[in-house]
Amino acid sequence: MRTANRTAMDRREHVVPDDLDALGGLLTYPVNKQQYYAVESEVLLGHGNSQLAAQAQEAVGGFSNPDDPTWAFGDLAGSQCNLALVRLHAGDLDGAADAIRPVFDLSASLRNNGIVVSAARVRHALTGGPVRDAILARDLREEIALFEPARRPALPR
Q1: What is the CA radius of gyration of the chain?
Q2: Which of 41, 73, 77, 109 would disulfide-bridge 115, Cβ 3.0–4.6 Å?
Q3: In the Cβ-directed half-sphere of 17, how many Cα atoms lie within 13 Å?
Q4: Distances (CA, A) of 73 to 45, 70, 79, 93, 114
Q5: 106 in any annotated domain
Q6: pTM (global) more than 0.90
Q7: Whole domain around residue 132: which residue ranges?
Q8: How many helical (H) and strand (E) elements, i.e. helices and strands, does the chain have?
Q9: How far is it, in rounded angstroms, from Cα 29 to Cα 20?
């Protein structure tokens, strides 16, 4: 996975944009999306260190401007959940709470399956390790449970 991510970054330096790239949209693969997926691949394997935390914070920053043409609310929420997980792996419960709380502000119509699954990963991580008995961990688990809709439609209503 790390080799694939490094190779992708190396190859990005040699890409020559064309007319299709100028269209933008879902078929583009901007650097911030690549970074978001690279962080997520590490997080899903249970990794977390200061370097990954910095990359996760950078991924959140890359999706924080809704006026940016590469902005996507789902990528922002996913990168915030990843940052929360990285911080949990490092034992930073308060930092994890700060990272995921903005996701709770999404309206129910924007809580797509990808976002709900990302939040559920944080909820699961809060059930183990040294943080599981902390009051803040319990509160976050409850907030995430309330965030998750009873039904997860594929499309917004």
Answers
A1: 16
A2: 77
A3: 9
A4: 24, 10, 10, 24, 11
A5: yes
A6: no
A7: 2-147
A8: 8, 0
A9: 12
CA 112 to chain CA centroid, nearest Å? 13
Q: What is the number of other CB atoms lying within 10 angstroms of the CB of residue 114? A: 14
Residue 155 placed within a domain: no
pLDDT digits (tens, 9 = 90+) for 64-123: 999 988 889 999 999 999 999 999 998 899 999 999 999 999 998 899 999 999 999 999
Q: Where are the alpha helices (DSSP H) in 24-112?
A: 31-44, 50-62, 73-89, 93-100
* Count: domains in the chain: 1
Q: Report which DSSP code applies to 76.
A: H
* CA–CA dist 57, 155 (Å, integer): 29
Q: Does some domain include residue 128?
A: yes
